[in-house]
Amino acid sequence: MTFPATRLRRLRATPALRAMARETALTPADLVAPLFVCHGENARRPIASMPGHAQVSVDEATRDAEALAALGVGGVILFGLPASKDAEGREAYAANGIVPKAIRALKKATPDLLIWADVCLCEYTDHGHCGVLNGDRVDNDRTLPLLARAAVAYAEAGADLIAPSDMMDGRIGVIRRALDEAERAETPIVAYSAKYASAFYGPFREAAESAPQFGDRRGYQMDPANAEEALREVALDLEEGADMVMVKPALPYLDVIRRVKERFGVPVAAYNVSGEYAMIKAAAQNGWLDGERAALETLTSIRRAGADVILTYFAKEIAPVLERREA
């Protein structure tokens, strides 16, 4: 029998050879960890559908941020739970709201950790939609100035990046102008450009207490069947001033991540969302798969698809694994 001259297995034989030939690099610095911040002190309320995560008060969030920074994680993204909700989500853009308060504390405790501020109204409105209502419809244009006010409040509190997730048309341009006028021209915008109306957000809505009280968000979030539309969304956001774009969720839309990266060549973030996290955790708890390996494989696949940054609930537990692998 004649054997081939080229045998790809040669570079798979040992851990050292596999590491040398590895095409996709994944480090803790590529990860951003979400934090759900609430009012109070010494508060840590576990989230049932997301084992290992909790709603935390600012003091607890500060401790979490310090631990993440020590692990080399690249940043955190903040989601706020307000003291009260109303039809226009006023605490979302209040200078003394929960997110500005958390930003100030985290920047003081961990000055080198990047603090991302999610911009949306859904956690703050009593109806749970991402914008203000006109009857039973979300009013796109009335929502835009409120999002801009939130972005400015977060930037003035010290946020390193502003990340609008609402999916209102035109919001990137309005937010960019508002930041510039507030002398925050250097604050980058990470646009949730291709955010799909996904079934994988369920645990997040428990964590952020943001489920819509009626209807759904398919009128403003993207149809899962559409990829060309995602490219149009990205193009519009870049034209309006976005510095980085995001695809959310990640795993069902790896093809979209790849197409966005290849078409535009800009920094791309991907959100490994709560449902993707919860599925792996549930299967691991039942002994159906190796949770650590599944998480690592998942994050590597997102990076391989073209994501430069991954927002993930696995950040804290996977960062030490990545460090050991590098060592």
Low-confidence segments, given as residue ranges, are none
**Mass-distribution shape:** globular
Q: Class in CATH?
A: Alpha Beta
Contiguous helical run count = 11
Q: How would you state the average pLDDT, rounded?
A: 96
- What's the helix-strand series? HEEEHEHEEEHEHEHHEHEHHEH
Q: Give the total of beta strands.
A: 12
Kindly state the percentage of residues in helix: 40-55%
Query: How much of the polypeptide forms β-strand, as a percent range?
Result: 15-25%
What CATH architecture do you see? Alpha-Beta Barrel
Find the structural class using helix and strand composition: alpha/beta
- The CATH homologous superfamily name equals Aldolase class I
Radius of gyration using CA atoms only? 20 Å
Number of domains: 1
Largest sheet: 10 strands, mixed
The name of the CATH topology is TIM Barrel
- Cα-to-Cα separation, first versus last residue: 41 Å
Description of the molecule:
Strands 1, 2, 3, 4, 5, 8, 9, 10, 11 and 12 form a ten-stranded mixed beta sheet that branches. The N and C termini lie far apart (41 Å). Helices cover 40% and strands 17% of the residues. The radius of gyration is 20 Å and the shape is globular. With 327 residues, it is α/β, with parallel strands linked by helices.
